[in-house]
Amino acid sequence: MSRHKHRPGDLGLLIPVDVITHASRTLDFEADKDQLVWLTGTMHVSEIRKVAAQFSLVREAEGVHVTGTLTATVVQPCIVTLEPVTQQIDVPLDRRYLPERMRVPDPGPASETHVDLDSEDLPDYFVGGDVDLAPLVIDTLGMEIDLYPRAPGAELPETRENAPSESTSPFAALAARFSKPADDN
Asked: Which of 28, 32, 23 is nearest to 133 (CA)?
């Protein structure tokens, strides 16, 4: 999968571009125990039990088109009850990579930029001869984790303890003033 030595925090997804052809090349990834521990800390969740991806890599001119699927199982506390909530993630992946030398220069702060929301996402870039798919996995996982997980049936209690009472509300004082009959002097 990778010609570089695996380190904790490194997902081992550095792929040499020269082994990717115009015919689709498939690649399967499943995070090992050390990688799951690292991802759990990176994502600030209670536990990540599984992260797996299936990639299809195709060479396009000088770039690489990557499609596939990311699956994961994430556990974190419910925002209401603090009991563990398990989230299953299953999302498609689709990213294009171009060599760094093909990057369009930043137009600078004084220029206007038109953004077409219906167009494809901008490509990512690679330096040297390797495409690193780890940021694709990490970014996608981070975007899919529920920020406010709730256990089934968990409800926030309805309380009015912190709400201002009608008698102390500034609007109540205003209403009281205008509801009094005016003094005729």
From this structure: 28
CB-count burial class (<10 Å; 0-12, 13-18, 19+) for 51: buried
- Which domain, by its residues, includes 47? 14-103+120-156
Total domains in the chain come to 1
For residue 67, give the nearest of 10, 23, 15, 26 by alpha carbon. Answer: 26
Whether 16 has a pLDDT exceeding 60, the answer reads yes
Pairing verdict, β 47-60 and 63-77: antiparallel
For residue 170, pLDDT beyond 70: yes
CB atoms within 10 A of CB 123: 17
To which residue do tokens 């396009």 refer?
60
Position 4 confidence tier, pLDDT thresholds 50, 70, 90:
very low
Closest CA to 79 of 46, 48, 51: 46
Residue 176: the pLDDT is 75
Output Rg (C-alpha) for the chain, integer angstroms: 26
Residue 171 falls inside a structural domain? no
Q: Is residue 27 part of a domain?
A: yes
Residue 152 has pLDDT above 50, yes or no: yes
